[in-house]
Specification:
Oligomer: heterodimer
CATH architecture of the largest domain in chain B: 2-Layer Sandwich
Radius of gyration of chain B: 21 Å
Strand order of the largest sheet of chain A: 1-7-6-2-5-4-3
Shape of chain B: globular
Number of domains of chain B: 2
Shape of chain A: globular
Strand content of chain B: 15-25%
Radius of gyration of chain A: 15 Å
Helix content of chain B: 40-55%
Order of helices and strands of chain B: HHEEEHHEHEHEEEHHHHEHEH
Mean pLDDT of chain A: 88
CATH superfamily of the largest domain in chain B: ATPase, nucleotide binding domain
Structural class of chain A: alpha/beta
CATH class of the largest domain in chain B: Alpha Beta
Structural class of chain B: alpha/beta
Number of strands of chain A: 7
Order of helices and strands of chain A: EHEHEEHEEEH
Low-confidence stretches of chain B: 1-29
Largest sheet of chain A: 7 strands, mixed
Number of helices of chain B: 12
Strand content of chain A: 25-35%
CATH superfamily of chain A: P-loop containing nucleotide triphosphate hydrolases
Chain lengths: 170, 386
């Protein structure tokens, strides 16, 4: 059996813009891997963290670092369930907060062709275990017990090509 | 009832669901339009509608049918079937559950609406149905059902933009807006300031939320506090007569020189503040906390809305959408409107939350202005108002 490679990076950030700089760094690394290898299946980033941790804030920093991302308005997809951004690479921004069960994933076309290319960002990914692919980058954002603004970000790569992305970043 | 005897829509209902599901996964271009192209502005021509209009709304967790009089002034019936109780269990809307339930209830809700209005399908002059934006599965249920109905009856069918519906709710009152106005549209999924030339457009979106919708901030904060769903109503109830000055909430603005909103920071502030309390929030402290949080959200909304009114050469403000049912928002808006000499129009509470009367009203305006009914309307989950 082949050992699955993993990688982990931890950041302590002092403010929302600081958190967004880490997100931007990850975005640039992912864009590079995407451009060089066009990985299939798609690149998936799962955001883990309680309410108010700053998952959408992280996504805003991520998008702004991509080509054509400067003008994109990133808002919480909790209500709409998925937002798609015309960046390069294209990004699909899911929010599973209101969902439960594998059926709900099918209903929104989570595994469908419409979201096959580019990067898929998933808030509340642990809400539905079926949303978690073999290879993905887990972003854990911790709010407490720090004061507002400060966060601990734990970036964990599961399998390939996720590990290559984190290595490219560090 | 005549409609039930035909059996066609009855027999169709389960099929509609099966069809809808496959449509979603295949992203069939004809039935679903994902581009988010903006709404077309109405031409200024006016024709007439001489029969009542049926409205159907199913874009989210409310399923509703309503009949509007031929002159567009009187709501003859307004049947809403809400799934709030079912969704309360999940702490929010579960689209799969929503669309399954919609299919089951559609025929019944329609029959009730026709019966209460004292009309049959043959008395109607047209059908208006929400075509977007919204949850695709839910949208398709109402839309495909309406298409079947239009096909069976030969009635013209118009697809209505859900937000135009909310704006149209302001025209269901005895004192509707006259001329251009600024509208604050606040709900669980949307928070925007819109300049409205007239109902039917042109519309200009002058401000939007940069992160969470106002209703979403209520829902998520309520969930964090363990208060249940929908958060806005629960917080509103607890906040009544409580001390809104007890807990300090930051004045979270998305910049002072624009009309955008930001509620994510306020939600986080609520969580951090609640955690910092020496004891868990309960009793009077919880009520005061809800009142303080609610006042902060409302103040944010109104500050920008009234500034938009001042700068957009109008003296009229419409507040619509589900959050417009919030008592604190209504009271503070009235006080402020009185002080600033602004004509304030807030629809009745039942027409703030999702309903079909507003969809019928918007559809009535479109039919009046010569919109041609057609049966090829696509569901547009990302439809833009402007």
């Amino acid at each position: 059996m082949v050992a699955v490679r993993t990688a982990e990076l931890v950041f302590q950030t002092a403010s929302a813009p600081d958190t967004q700089r880490v997100a931007a760094k990850l975005a640039r690394a992912m864009a590079r891997i995407w451009a060089e290898t066009k990985p299939t299946p798609r690149l998936v980033v799962g955001l883990v963290g309680e309410l108010g941790a700053g998952k959408t804030t992280f996504v805003q920093g991520f998008i702004s670092a991509l080509r054509n991302g400067g003008q994109v308005r990133v808002t919480s997809p909790t209500f709409a369930l998925v937002h798609q951004y015309p960046t390069s690479p294209p990004v699909h921004h899911f929010d599973l907060y209101r969902l439960s069960g594998a059926d709900a994933l099918d209903e929104i076309g989570f595994h469908g062709d419409a979201f096959a290319d580019g990067i898929t960002l998933v808030e509340w990914i642990r809400q539905i275990p079926d949303a978690i692919p073999d290879s993905w980058i887990e972003i854990e954002i911790c709010l407490a017990p720090m004061p507002t603004g400060a966060r601990q970000l734990r970036l964990r790569a599961h399998g390939e090509p996720a590990t290559a992305v984190l290595e490219c970043m560090g | 009832m005549r409609f039930a005897q035909r059996r066609t829509p009855h027999a169709r209902a389960p099929g509609v669901y099966a069809e809808s599901t496959s449509v979603v996964t295949q992203t069939n271009k004809e039935a679903v339009c994902l581009s988010g192209e903006p709404l077309t502005t109405l031409p200024p021509v006016e024709t007439s509608v001489d029969k009542p209009i049926l409205g159907i709304e199913s874009s989210c967790d409310e399923l509703a049918c309503a009949v509007l009089s031929a002159d567009g002034c009187t709501v003859l019936s307004d049947e809403v079937h809400s799934q709030i109780e079912m969704h309360a269990h999940f702490g929010g809307i579960v689209p799969e559950v929503a669309s399954r339930d919609h299919v089951r209830r559609l025929t019944f809700v329609l029959e009730q609406a026709l019966k209460k209005a004292g009309v049959t399908l043959s008395d109607l002059g047209g059908i208006a149905v929400t075509a977007g934006p919204g949850l695709i599965g839910s949208l398709l249920c109402g839309l495909e059902f309406a298409k079947g109905l239009a096909l069976a009856t030969g009635l013209p069918l118009v697809g209505v933009h859900h937000h135009e519906g909310h704006l149209a709710a302001a025209f269901l009152s005895d004192k509707p807006p006259v001329g251009p106005f600024v509208a604050l549209l606040v709900s669980g999924g949307h928070t925007s300031l819109i300049h409205v030339e007239k109902l039917g457009g042109p519309y200009a979106v002058i401000g939007e939320t940069r992160d969470d919708a106002a209703g979403e901030a209520f829902d998520k904060t309520a969930k964090f506090l363990g208060l249940g769903y929908p958060g806005g109503i629960v917080i509103d109830r607890l906040a009544a007569d409580a001390d809104a000055d007890r807990f300090p909430f930051p004045d979270v603005m998305a910049g002072k020189n624009n009309f955008d909103f930001s509620f994510s920071g306020l939600k986080t502030a609520a969580i951090v503040l609640a955690r910092a309390q020496p004891a868990p929030l309960e009793g009077q402290a919880l009520r005061d906390f809800c009142a303080s949080f609610q006042a902060a959200v409302v103040e944010n909304l109104l500050k920008k809305a009234f500034r938009a009114v001042r700068l957009h050469d109008t003296k009229q403000l419409v507040i619509c959408g589900g959050v417009a049912a919030n008592r604190e928002l209504r009271t503070r808006a009235e006080t402020r409107a009185h002080r600033e000499g602004v004509r304030l129009i807030i629809p009745e509470k039942r027409w703030c939350t999702d309903n079909a009367a507003m969809i019928a009203r918007a559809g009535w305006t479109r039919l009046m202005c010569g919109a041609k009914g057609r049966d090829t309307i696509s569901a547009q989950p990302y439809w833009k108002l402007a």
